Amino acid sequence: MPFSDAILLAPGSQLLPLYGFRVPAGFPSPAQDHLEREISLDEILDIRAPHTYLVRAAGDSMQGAGIFDGDLMVVDRSREAEAGDIVIAALNSEPLVKRLASEGRQVVLRAENPRYAPRYILEGDELTIWGVVRFSVRCHDPR
């Protein structure tokens, strides 16, 4: 496993209630108390064990993509990375999370924060893609 803090996922069996309404983030509306169905986090996060692992983000280079320091990223290592995907990669054996891009035949790793310059993959660089970030999970509990 590329990251010492990565967590491999196994299929889960715990079902959680999914309600068939959206909670307004503005003004409250009358309660709509109807259960649509039960669903597992595996289904919500498209977990395809054993091809999925979790790893935490470090730093602020991906904030523009909604990935913040400490967020848990759900990574699918079975998916072929394409331009536009956010990837977990090793560039010259250094792990990182960036958006995969191309300019003509040139491969580029881009941060989602203007403070960070794009990294062009040059001849002699070794780039290994460890998976495509499918989701990120952030804790909102202040405790």
3D architecture notes:
The protein has 143 residues and is mostly beta strands. It has a single domain (22-137), classed as Umud Fragment, subunit A, CATH 2.10.109. The protein has one helix at residues 41-44, and strands at 7-8, 15-19, 35-40, 52-56, 72-76, 86-91, 94-103, 106-110, 119-120, 127-137. An eight-stranded antiparallel beta sheet has the order 1-4-5-10-6-7-8-9, with no helix packed on it. The protein is globular. Keywords: Autocatalytic cleavage, DNA damage, DNA repair, Hydrolase, SOS response.
Descriptive key words:
143 residues; mainly beta; Umud Fragment, subunit A; eight-stranded antiparallel sheet; two-stranded antiparallel ribbon; 1 helix; globular; Peptidase_S24_LexA; hydrolase
| Proper CATH architecture | Ribbon
Portion in strands: 35-45%
Question: How many beta-strand elements?
Answer: 10
| Strand neighbour order, sheet with most strands | 1-4-5-10-6-7-8-9
Give the CATH superfamily. Umud Fragment, subunit A
How many structural domains in the coordinates? 1
Pfam family, one: Peptidase_S24
Family: Belongs to the peptidase S24 family.
Organism: Pseudomonas linyingensis
GO molecular function, one term: hydrolase activity
Provide a short characterization of the protein structure:
This is DNA polymerase V. The protein is mostly beta strands and 143 residues long.
Would you spell out the secondary-structure blueprint of this structure?
Elements: E1 7-8, E2 15-19, E3 35-40, H1 41-44, E4 52-56, E5 72-76, E6 86-91, E7 94-103, E8 106-110, E9 119-120, E10 127-137
Antiparallel strand pairs: 1-4, 2-3, 4-5, 5-10, 6-7, 6-10, 7-8, 8-9
InterPro entries: LexA-like (IPR039418), LexA/Signal_pep-like_sf (IPR036286), LexA_repressor (IPR050077), Peptidase_S24_LexA (IPR006197), Peptidase_S24_S26A/B/C (IPR015927)
Organism: Pseudomonas linyingensis
Keywords: Autocatalytic cleavage, DNA damage, DNA repair, Hydrolase, SOS response
